[in-house]
Structure formats: C-alpha cells, structure tokens
Amino acid sequence: MTHYTLGEPSAIGVPTVLTARLVLRAWCAADVDPYAAMNGDADTMRYLDGTFGRDSTERLVTHLIGMWPLRGHGMWALQDRTTGEFLGRAGLYFGPGWPGVEVAVSVRRDRWRQGLGTEAATAAVAWGFDHLDVDRIITFTNRHNAGMQGIARALGMTFIGEADKIGPWADNFVYEVTRDAWASRDSGDQVSHQAGSERS
Ligand SMILES: CC(C)(COP(=O)(O)OP(=O)(O)OC[C@H]1O[C@@H](n2cnc3c(N)ncnc32)[C@H](O)[C@@H]1OP(=O)(O)O)[C@@H](O)C(=O)NCCC(=O)NCCS
Questions:
Q1: Is the model's pTM score more than 0.90?
Q2: How far apart are the first and last CA of the chain?
Q3: What distance in angstroms lies between residue 121's CA and the mean position of ligand 1's atoms?
Q4: FRET pair for 174, CA 20 to 30 Å: which of 5, 11, 15, 47?
Q5: Which residue puts its alpha carbon closest to atom 27 of ligand 1?
C-alpha cells in the first residue's frame, strides 16, 4: 500500500559549458576518486590548507553540488574534452564574508602550465557575466600562489588589495574584473554553452 503521492520533482539544471579543450559539467560519483587524488597531493593543496582524503572529498563534492540550487551558480567538474578524463574543478563561488562572487580553479597537477586553468576560468567568468546580476567578479589567493595570480593576470583582472582573512583563507591578494572591463576586453576565447543540463 502506498502512503504518499508524488508531487512535482524539483531540480536545477547545471549548465554544461564547452571550451576548446574542456567540458565544464555537473559533478558525478565517478569524479570523487580522481578529485580525492588531487586533494591528496601536497603541491596541489599548498595554498588550499593542506591535503585531505576521500571522505572529505565526497563531503566537499556534495557541498559544491549544493551551491548550484542555493546560489544559482557554483563550481563545475573539469573534463578533458578529448579523453573524458577528470582534470579538476573550476567555477564561481560565494561564501560567508566573501567580498564578491569568486572565480576559483584547480587543475590536475600533471596538466599545469598548459593554459587549462586560464581556459576554465575564462569560461566561468564569461558564464557569470552572462547569467548573474553582478557588476564584478573577483578572485583571491594566497600571496605566494603564483599560478592563481597568473590566471588573474591572464584574465585581465586588477589587483585591488590584500585581505588578512576571507572565510578560512589567510594572507590573500584580491583581484577583480568589472563587467565593463570584461565586455571591452579583446578576446578570441571560444566558449559555448550547451543547451542540455544535468541534475544537481
Ligand atoms: C593555480 C592553477 C589552477 C594554475 O593552473 P594552470 O592550468 O597551470 O594555469 P595556466 O597554465 O592557465 O597559467 C596561467 C598563467 O599563470 C602562470 N603560472 C601558472 N602556474 C604558475 C606557477 N606555478 N608559477 C608561476 N607562474 C605560473 C602561467 O605561466 C600563465 O601565465 P601567462 O599567461 O603569463 O603565460 C594550478 O597551479 C593549480 O591547480 N594549483 C593548485 C590549486 C590552486 O592553488 N588553485 C587556486 C586557488 S582556487
């Protein structure tokens, strides 16, 4: 005997975004192991408060998925467009005390310095200005994190100052790009947004 009736399902579609070499897509269970491998790597986690394991990675993934219905934006899983491999995560994040919507990126270490971080961040910022009611997108990173600062530079972001503490993160350099500056930048970036969506 059935003791309930079903109402309308509720769901949010996480957009799938394509760049020249990447797919930015919704997270799936198969991402947890390769993401845990990244989170267990000391070089990758140097400026992200140290390494952690699979259980914490799974909790983090559920948090990142949850940001989509909560905020209407979030972090995507990064997939190699050719091979389908998991290559990291990128997207837009806003936490308590954040000075603005942040673009954030992590790339699998064996694929650093190939422009993939910039490619993913560019797509995330473009999507953000297309879909969110924000005047600027920021990024912040530890003052010693040359890689993320390189991405900020490649995106044409402006250094706007230092912040001792943003959420759990200490000793930050903060950058921004305004909607107007983004619109006027000369860009040959190839980003397309797929009509299809996936579950959150
Ligand atoms: C930061 C990170 C995402 C950079 O990704 P990436 O794919 O290697 O970056 P790119 O290849 O697009 O490089 C962007 C710019 O930064 C420079 N750069 C990248 N890594 C660098 C490093 N370790 N030292 C100095 N410069 C670096 C590149 O030369 C490039 O500069 P250019 O445009 O003048 O040529 C990657 O190092 C990473 O995942 N780090 C660990 C996680 C992390 O700290 N994420 C940032 C906080 S959210």
A1: yes
A2: 31
A3: 11
A4: 15
A5: 147
